[in-house]
């Protein structure tokens, strides 16, 4: 499978990605290599990764606790301290082996330690392969507020090896599918239509779709690296999706949503709102809902939780000049950015989702 060359770094696929990595390590003159993992990737992914790594350099493993709840400055501080204690310098390399928490946090740690050290992303979840590791967005949460602290800074390369997906539970696989569905909705109806019969897809089909999804995201990012205009379309479903995710993370008596699960709900909500504000087809909106519910189920959002979720919208990163900006659809593959939405319409959207 062909590599994708972005303006700043290459994305390599399958086992040939390790050939590219090892060639890079021989020529880059790094002082030391650090591999960031969590408990899960330490056990299930690290042995396989190290078996493919060829280097005479010293390799140190840094482990953090797994889960979105640990994607914060406190965890960063712990990793920064370990790097310092192990005498990392600006010529050291940090390899982030894990899902979106690891790639987001690890990229941020590398971008800020001693004002910047090199890093490489090795995503091990579907979500991190098609979204978190692509495009140079790094960062952590502020309390339960998603991705409030971070920088856009690309690494040296991204390695996509779907063998890691064999270690994933089913809900984590579904979580990644949400971002792939989003790429179809904002960019390509043909790509969206490939997901209408998910039960017929083989692992080889998924391999091809992952490559196509990454290519779609990269094309959007290349046009707008710093998210001033078209890159905002990648936030489709994320305005309310992130608010839902943040709200449930903050409620110890509620079961938290995975990122993709929350974004899936957010996409249904945004599709409904689109029917009211941009002329989006109500029939297509219902088709989107049916497709997403078939994959993710339909966990209900209690009426008493809707207003607290709406209250969190003021923290969304796309907001400008005090305005909450949504990404909506005029048609599949035709998104519209910087849309304002009244609260009563958001309540209507939740009623549509719950129905």
Automatic annotation (TrEMBL):
Name the needed cofactors. Zn(2+); Co(2+); NAD(+)
One GO cellular component term of this record is: cytoplasm
Enzyme Commission code(s) on record: 4.2.3.4
Q: Name one GO molecular function term.
A: nucleotide binding
Primary enzyme class = lyase
Q: Which PANTHER family match?
A: 3-DEHYDROQUINATE SYNTHASE
Task: Tell me what this protein is called.
Answer: 3-dehydroquinate synthase
Q: Which organism is it from?
A: Xanthomarina gelatinilytica
